[in-house]
Amino acid sequence: MEENLLEQRKEQGEAREELIQLVLFKLGEEEFGVNILQAREIEKLDQGLTRVPKAPPFVEGVINLRGEIIPIVDLRKRFGLTLPPVGYDSRVIIVEVRGAPVGMLVDAVVEVIRVPVSAVEPPPPITKGVESQYLAGVAKVDNRLIVLLNLDRALSPEESQELAEAELGDE
Amino acid sequence: MEISDYLRVFMDECQEHLQSLNSALLELEGDPGNMEILNSIFRSAHTVKGASATMGFNKMASVTHAMEDILGLLRRGDLEVTPEIINLLFDSVDLLEVLARGIPEGREADIEITGIIQRLKEYSASEEKTPSARDRRRKLDLRYTKEEKEQIKERLTDAKKLYHIHVFLKEECLLKGARAFMILREVENMGEIVKTIPSTKELEDEQFKFDFIIGLLSEEPVEKAVAAIEKVLDVENVKGTAMSIDEIPDERRGYGDTYRFASQDKKDADEPAPAQLGPASLTVRVDIRKLDELMNLVAELVINRGRLEQISSELQHQELEESVETLNRLLLRLQDDVLQTRMVAVEHVFSRFPRLVRDLTRRAGKQVDLVITGADTELDRTVIDEIGDPLVHIIRNSLDHGIESPEERKAVGKPETGRLEINAYQTGNQVLITVSDDGKGIDRDKVARAALNKGFITEERLAEMNEDEIVNLIFTPGFSTSEKVTDVSGRGVGMDVVRERITALGGTARVTSKRGEGTTVIIQLPLTLAIIQTLMIQVGSEIYAIPTGLVEQTISVNRNEIHRLHQQEVTTWRGEVLPLVRLQDILEVKDAKNFEYSELDVVIIRNGERRLGCVVDTLLRPQDVVIKSLGSYLGNIPGIAGATILGDGRVALILDLRDVA
Amino acid sequence: MARILVIDDSPLFRLVLREILTKGGNEVYEASTVEEGLRIFRTISPDLVFKDLIMEDSNPLEVIKDLIRYSPTAKIVICSTEGQKNLIYQAIRAGAMDFLIKPFNTNEVTMTVERLLAK
Lengths: 171, 661, 119
Fold this sequence. Notes:
Structural class of chain B: alpha+beta
Oligomer: heterotrimer
Shape of chain B: globular
Largest interface: A-B, 28 and 32 residues
Strand content of chain A: over 45%
Strand order of the largest sheet of chain B: 14-18-19-17-16-15
Radius of gyration of chain B: 31 Å
């Protein structure tokens, strides 16, 4: 569908419009997206996690990815979401937060799509239960509402507290 | 220097020369006219002769002396390189290996050598003469020397025929060399390139006009190769002709080159002979144990540095911080340098493969061309030592289960000669080693069935798996599809062990396979390692490593010997009060068992003058592990020095219990 | 329909390739830097990669090796101007399957794609 749409637009002379490519993934039945430029790779979680004592509570543990130790973050716990697990094959999207690899545990990776930059809008205060401080925006594609994460904030172990406090102070 | 030091140096050198003799003989077998190979064989034999005579190993000296005689005749052209002579030289090298193995046990003098000596002498007595005149005519017409013809004839079968493919590139073609290279690569998939005119080297260097001829041994109709070449850009015209070997006029040894055993290292032609090199760089032989020790010390320094950094940042003393920073920089350089001294070319491992492949294929009645590339890629010495066996196993698997017999291959329309490629290269701070064969591939259904039968996976899980994932089940511990263990497949060591060994080195192993087309095993290894000795322990279901540098002793304590002193569990050890801590309390482990035990395993940690007994569930084993950082995302976690990867691929944390002590 | 990744810092050549390749019914992804290219490559596992030989901040041969490291069966076509004989040659040695000399025409691109996808 989108392919055709984009194709038509291009033929209408809109080919110049800047597109971003998004990796879409699911938490529960909700769709989220991250810019493909931030995703390093996508892996199955087919090995045991090693728990790390005294790590932040949303860090599920670490895994070995081709010899590199990668911390795994449970986005549900991070966002305080209560979305039910849906029994998909869990996937880990490896992203980079300030140069350090982090794995985001998600329920499924859906697809990679291209979205015109103009389709991305600033996030409302709370979207699908996730506070706007963790979001980079929302994109409307056809009838879907895709929530784009601001990874630096969404995954940051240290600043979350401060941010949350700052946010409270503003209100 | 004591005598044993001399002996070690001699043995090292001897091993090196025997390795190079083996590989050079193999090359000579593929290219009997190559003078340079012959010279290098002569040099190696000569060196071994001199060294063994010096050390008083007379039998070794006698064998190498007799070899030298024959090699001298071959070099002068008074004797021709024949398969019989090659075999005899191989046998001689085998005997040298037996002699070398006998040396440390003092048995060298007891080993029987008269058989080989006699055979060697027979040849040197009957000096055959071969013409050595050279004729360098140049026109585009692919011819073969007598020897080459013999070799080609040996390989011809009812199905396998000799074709000449004449390729014309377009005049506007901009990169003839690269196109020619692509075309050769294309043609290589169809069969065996026996020769090209101009030589492959000249083709690659663009030393040709617009056309070249490829001599190809193939079981497939030449039209297929022609069609594939026609599809390459910039090709004007391709002509494929079936040739009758006897009708091609002889070429006296001259231009063109044979393409078998294409080791891409290309050391042979491009490198000046050793004698022409500038002043030799000074090298020192160092006992590898010394390097290991150095490495351990550096690793402990690295752990201590973390501690120092922490203290200095707590104290906020500027001069201290600056000097810690300097220490940091120096330590990094030291670590780098120590790691560099441990780097060794994979050639040390690869050099034994040609012989291995030759012997195994002969025994199994198969024909295989081995192509090794990237043998100069370097890896840490520890990895080099550990990687040999897994690779041998993978190669054995390829030869045993992968590459089919010539008859089977013929039946499915493949060239009778199989192809085994071993390739190493560095990318970033990783080294990749791939072993590919063009055999029958891994039977996915068989793997799936076996995995189901053994209860490794469920039907549901299997239904979700893609082809690659199924094939990779062969790495599951306890897996083996081969019902019977043949000699060639190795003494029952399965791919699970291969993966385990490689994961323990911080690497990964995976396999891709296409039914009927072949299998590739891809091994990824870290370039360098930081290794420390640890004691592995278990608390509940979790496994941790404690650096042995911190461990004073491990003891067993009866629960009746444990007392409470101000809320603190203590026991007495060597007449002193030893405070105890249950490791599960520090590490927040929920399923620890040691409360139920009457005899407790205790690891005594020492920090300066203070000691602390850490109660664990089980003491596992001492183990050298590769230290990995937890990464900057998690940052410094108190009590954790880093992580390591266990044989099963899982991560175990390395504890730094000094803060607790 | 094949997934094709174009890695080129020149918007013009990306556009040209995209036009030619989408007309051929392929799904085309684009990257303007090597880093972006590697990320997309690892995420979508394309059937074919067109890689501009010389790009900023990267060793062309290392890039090819990196791609092959992630997918040993990667089919990489090098795009370059005429001046880079040696480098193209080394790229082919390093594992690139084919090369195109800029400027190229539709026919050359189509032929190369067909040849490599048929493998």
